[in-house]
Amino acid sequence: MANKKFVYLFGNNKTEGKNSMKDLLGGKGANLAEMANLGIPVPPGFTITTEVCVLYTKNNQYPPGVLDEVNRALQKLEKANNKQFGDPDNPLLLSVRSGAGVSMPGMMDTVLNLGLNDKTVTGLAKKTSNERFAYDSYRRFLTMFSDVVLGIPTENFEKLIEARKEELGVELDTELDTDSLKYLVEKFKSIIKDNTGEEFPQDPRKQLQMAIDAVFNSWNNQRAIKYRRLNNIPDNWGTAVNVQSMVYGNMGEKSGTGVAFTRDPATGEKCFFGEFLTNAQGEDVVAGIRTPQPIEALQDSMPEVYDELVDIYRKLENHFQDMQDIEFTIQEGTLYMLQTRTGKRTAKAALRIAVEMEKEGLIDKETAVSRIEASQIDKVLHPMIDPGAKLDVIATGLPASPGAAVGKVVFTAEDAEEKSKEGKQTILVRTETSPEDIGGMAASEGVLTVRGGMTSHAAVVARGMGKPCVAGCGGITIDIDKKEFTNGNVTVKEGDYVTIDGSTGEVILGEVKLISPELSDELDTILGWADNIRSINVRSNADTPQDAAVAREFGAEGIGLCRTEHMFFGEERIPVVREMIMAESSLERKQALEKLLPMQKEDFTGIFRAMEGYPVTIRLLDPPLHEFLPNHEELTEKLRELKSKGAKQSEIAEVNRLIGGVESLKEVNPMLGHRGCRLGITYPEVYEMQVKAIIEAACDLKKEGVEIVPEIMIPLVSHVNELKVIKETVKSAAQEVMDCNGSTIDYLVGTMIELPRAALTADRIAEEAEFFSFGTNDLTQTTFGFSRDDAGKFLPSYIENNILEQDPFAVLDQEGVGELVKIGIEKGRDTNSKLKIGICGEHGGEPASVKYGHNVGLNYVSCSPFRVPIARLAAAQAVIENKNK
Amino acid sequence: MANKKFVYLFGNNKTEGKNSMKDLLGGKGANLAEMANLGIPVPPGFTITTEVCVLYTKNNQYPPGVLDEVNRALQKLEKANNKQFGDPDNPLLLSVRSGAGVSMPGMMDTVLNLGLNDKTVTGLAKKTSNERFAYDSYRRFLTMFSDVVLGIPTENFEKLIEARKEELGVELDTELDTDSLKYLVEKFKSIIKDNTGEEFPQDPRKQLQMAIDAVFNSWNNQRAIKYRRLNNIPDNWGTAVNVQSMVYGNMGEKSGTGVAFTRDPATGEKCFFGEFLTNAQGEDVVAGIRTPQPIEALQDSMPEVYDELVDIYRKLENHFQDMQDIEFTIQEGTLYMLQTRTGKRTAKAALRIAVEMEKEGLIDKETAVSRIEASQIDKVLHPMIDPGAKLDVIATGLPASPGAAVGKVVFTAEDAEEKSKEGKQTILVRTETSPEDIGGMAASEGVLTVRGGMTSHAAVVARGMGKPCVAGCGGITIDIDKKEFTNGNVTVKEGDYVTIDGSTGEVILGEVKLISPELSDELDTILGWADNIRSINVRSNADTPQDAAVAREFGAEGIGLCRTEHMFFGEERIPVVREMIMAESSLERKQALEKLLPMQKEDFTGIFRAMEGYPVTIRLLDPPLHEFLPNHEELTEKLRELKSKGAKQSEIAEVNRLIGGVESLKEVNPMLGHRGCRLGITYPEVYEMQVKAIIEAACDLKKEGVEIVPEIMIPLVSHVNELKVIKETVKSAAQEVMDCNGSTIDYLVGTMIELPRAALTADRIAEEAEFFSFGTNDLTQTTFGFSRDDAGKFLPSYIENNILEQDPFAVLDQEGVGELVKIGIEKGRDTNSKLKIGICGEHGGEPASVKYGHNVGLNYVSCSPFRVPIARLAAAQAVIENKNK
């Protein structure tokens, strides 16, 4: 540790860092060094490494040697500039900036003009022959130092400036005269004294030390922590500190400062795009006090500088092979580059830039593909809120299904359907949704629920429909009688407009302007390239022929999960399903099932047709039967009503019978109850019917010449014997249909791996299963012991307190659940090395999880139709990332 | 395969088998061979191996060569007896008996006198000069062959015998004359013709073939399958067939047959114990048609035979070094041994025999310890139903807590408490119990529930109290309004007597005589030996000072699980607990917790005192908070009542407030919800209070000179960060108390491993945990995805259909859950090789699971107090079994 180098010089004629040292020097420091190495003019300075931040944060003191190194670097800076730090005649002034390994805009803090005090300000005035400039710099320094280092809010100072301008009757800061600035400097120092109880530190070295401390401390300020959490940046990366000689854009009309992008960050168009301000320092551009000019204006006012800047930006884009976001300052006609970094861009621009740079030969296809953030794709596929819109956010829930939607609030599925028939757009607001709400969900623009997580019914169904959904918005309370919901003192009544943003989880009062999605050719191009690179298949979860068609459009290569129970909820089907459930004998049950068979068969025929040539995995009935019965409380209410109305005995008896059914099916923990293959074992006739419907559909299509290999999937297997018993049922039902049709259908029988025991005994299960599909939603529930319906009570506080980095229902927990996936794959392939293995939980469309799936050897992922493009891209990026490791 | 030997001779002068070949020859065949080897007179015969059974069952035909081998063996038998099979003048007759690898009494079938037909019967008559004997044998053969081979029930034949005896005016079978027997033989043959449509097979070889087939087929009859299931005998062991020359106990007054034990199987007393019948064949003794004489009577009637028998039984006991159950036949003064096997015995006898044999020097201590079935210990520790009592079993549930109890039926906990005060014994019958019923459970003799499995609330609490419990008795329906329960057409009203047997799950109408448990010195001796042998510790789960004291009496070496929530249910505590839960601020909650602190502290002081010198593991609050609130439906009912009565607004508001609390705590899957350490994270003040109570109790005791090292255990950890956060809370609360007391207490902070993720990431968790305790109840739930409260809907059919061999909540599932335990131990010890690891689920007292725990390297098991002796014994047996491997 003692021999470590903590400080790296850059600029002048000695640059010790380079671009590849981002982890150590931060993005800003590494890029400053790289620019210096390229011969681009950079004010000399030095970078204190991120390691210092880590050690300082951990031990609450600097590692030995750091301060000496800083002093030595400072001496070199004095030499390079031929100025002395703190010299009243010829003072060296510094900027102190943070710079983490990845760009964290606005999160960390900056101090400019450090080194000024009551004496050096006069030196600066003399040296530049510009007293106004010197005091302008001093008052700026006092403000920033107070804000960043001393924690005194800027508004304290701004108020005084405004008051002074009013006194003088002027509008712009630049119109303040030298005396006013001197007056403000004195005032500012008293504010510091009043707020801190101590005089403003006149000693430049003390200023520097305090500024460096402040930057390191700011690594752990709330904003920074929150930004890291949102962007999955580890807390232990730390930030570097860049100490750099000041240059001045505020030394007159031949000075200025600006920011620019090497391509348009909104559209991706190839053009130099930026703006600058004459006679200003950096923060003036950002603050928007004066309106900056477009960068082209520089061509007229300082043509040589403009040409140099164009040369530099081209050099930088060519060197970094990516669109750059640059900052520069012109000091009395001399150009200095203060920063270059990869420019942020919209999803749309990202696609265009990647495709065009490939065409220009600047990057190859793999690089182009790896440039698109998989999660950004969501944004180009769904309507989004106009970035310029002013939002009255009244609550925030989980971002459960991406995109934004506007509509009038309704509180029941029926109302949503009714309004929809009247041509009205609605947002369906429910405590939680159940399968009975599906019609209403389809009829509404978007869904907002109080309870439930990322894999709740509302979330899963909404994603399947490609509809925005905010789930688990625990802050609001619904009063169903009054038909309103409240959050604190905001009350939203039925018929009021709200806007929801399913990408951020925000609920906004009123009708906000939305931007429609544009499906661009560039997206097709990128996804085409991705398809050529990726090695795993991407399938879709789809329950209807319509879903299947959408999935094909998005490029799904088959269906990885067709949930047959969703077919049970049609208006004309649910009464038959209930008949089946309430049957008092196996015979009665079979009679009801016979009525369901042609309906299921019709669905399968449609899906098979839409997926011609691609595999279709059909999961047999999974949820507990009570999900198909009406709610107990509603039934009791109905009974009470019927009785008080003096209804017929037969009507009352029917409701009583239903209540009896609901009660006998009631479970304490339905998620761990009588569902999945357990139903297939206790009621084999249900699975028999489903298998017959599948094989009959395949036989019919075969007669038309359409060949389908159905993959019949058994849910919730925990022991190989369950699969063994059900496989016998499946095989004999299938054989019966094939014999009847005089036909032979190739089909597979496989299983979900969605319980820890299934993964742990996958070697045994693979003796019977012809394929595996990891149901990572359920597997996450049992591995963590988190019910996805109830986790809303503690999961948010887990994320907030950093106990879990991410919601494991959204992003696969690689350490725990992923370990079971790995064990399952290894054991399964031990028994059958050719075993086809996929994943069909919601994680199948989440980029990090798709990459994990690729790495552990899945054959395919399957996700909701609208996430298929994301999965295609992520699968390709996994290949590229492994290559570049 | 072709070279395999399928048939083994024994007796005469050629014996090919021996005792160690039990797997191949079955118990009976191996022991017959062994007796022949010892020079004990055995009628010659041969054994067809169990392998033949396995192959025959699998392929539905005999492996090639078997039948030839049988024929060759038959020829040798003919030679040895100097008789021919089927010879009308001098016929060889045979017995055909099954004999599996372990004794399966009554399960398999026997045919005697095989080889008789219309011709050989006359030969037998001539040869023995005893026509009556010959026809008596023939009619017996026809009956047994019909029963066993042809499936015609014996009663068909018995009816005719009874009719004939009535005609003749006689009482005993032996009083039937030869003509009557001839008449019966003809009648019997017509019955066979009528029932099968075919003549009785006269060909002896055909008879033999059919009998062998029948024995092999009987391996898979329902009785046999059920017995195997109950006794954990694998289906693929198969049975052997023993074909043996007949000897006759029914040849007159110098003939006879008997069974005997080398020690008293009921008490274990060392004395020759048995009975015999003169002039009878074996089944007469068993059938109880004539009353047999005690074995000593033989001393008078056939003193030489008696002396020979005594010699033989001593030889056999010495040879096999265990109590033997023998069968013999005396044919005209000559003694033949037909069978010897290890004798079944009562638990009491098992203990006495083991201890006495050790004292006699026949066996060593390890053998003595391994002779006791750990599960038998339950029987000597609890009252049991008098084996002679006649039982009117009206329903059967799960054997949830062993022992039997008698009492009047009550339907509420309050009634049980009230009756108890009146000195009346009750059985508490509930749909399911909740923590509020604990008082009533304690006041009743035993508990019967309709719902819930082996680890339901009722089961766990009853076992803890050592009270009999039958749980999950789904056959009965409670009508709480009428205060009665029904099962089919049996109705039991409040106040009616019932008896429950918690060891079998039976519910019996009326007051049955019980036998009180006798705690014998032999048990103490055996357990003392076991303690010296075993290498793992045995602790107890105990929640109160009383439980702790009981646990110590049973030899617990500490407490492995003290469930603090059970302390929250006292009459004066529950209102305070509710105050705490309903608190609207952290301050209000702390105020309620302050009231609870002294109560908890008192409990801990008591427990620590009872366990002085032994470790005490205290689990912080685990269940979801709604368990402490009243039931929702009851509250709604109460509200309705209050309103209709026109109660005060404040009363109504209070109930409404409670309803609000219940609703806000409602969960879809509470088992996977807001409980365990999740509560500790969202409400740290609760754990803080508990830790303070623990440490204060320890400080107080320290002042008295009592040193305690409390082990504080955090439940339901899934991620190391949960433990990390809570450990900080624990440490600072503990420090605060220690500072206050100016004292230092050594304590450990550890965690339950009861979620798959905890086991999978045990290496990470061991960075923070100072000990692990596997909570295998919860771990079983999440590993299988089985809710213990709901599994009753499908688990019974799983066991019945052989999908699972055993209820995984009763016997640890070694393949799945056990794999996680292994992973957890390995990973935990990777991080900390000295990590103390135990198990505190119900499996901690189940013998097979205790042995598994020993084998995977646990330091201790912990179980309910009454199972501690079982665990001590099983832990010792694990050591012995490993040594003998």
Automatic annotation (TrEMBL), chains A, B:
Enzyme Commission identifier(s): 2.7.9.1
Cofactor annotation: Mg(2+)
Keyword field contains Iron-sulfur: no
Domain Pyruvate phosphate dikinase AMP/ATP-binding, residue spans: 60-298, 307-360
UniProt cross-references to InterPro entries, sorted A to Z: ATP_grasp_subdomain_1, PEP-util_enz_mobile_dom, PEP_util_AS, PEP_util_C, PEP_util_CS, Phosphohistidine_dom_sf, PPDK_AMP/ATP-bd, Pyruvate_phosphate_dikinase
Main EC class the enzyme belongs to: transferase
Keyword tags: ATP-binding, Kinase, Magnesium, Metal-binding, Nucleotide-binding, Pyruvate, Transferase
PROSITE patterns assigned to the protein according to its UniProt record, in alphabetical order: PEP_ENZYMES_2 (PS00742), PEP_ENZYMES_PHOS_SITE (PS00370)
GO MF annotations, alphabetized: ATP binding; kinase activity; metal ion binding; pyruvate, phosphate dikinase activity
Pfam families associated with the record: PEP-utilizers, PEP-utilizers_C, PPDK_N
Residues binding Mg(2+), per UniProt: 754, 778
Keyword Nucleus recorded: no
Domain PEP-utilising enzyme C-terminal: 521-878
Residues of the PEP-utilising enzyme mobile domain: 424-505
UniProt similarity note: Belongs to the PEP-utilizing enzyme family.
Designated name of the protein: pyruvate, phosphate dikinase
Upper lineage: Archaea, Methanobacteriati, Methanobacteriota, Stenosarchaea group, Methanomicrobia
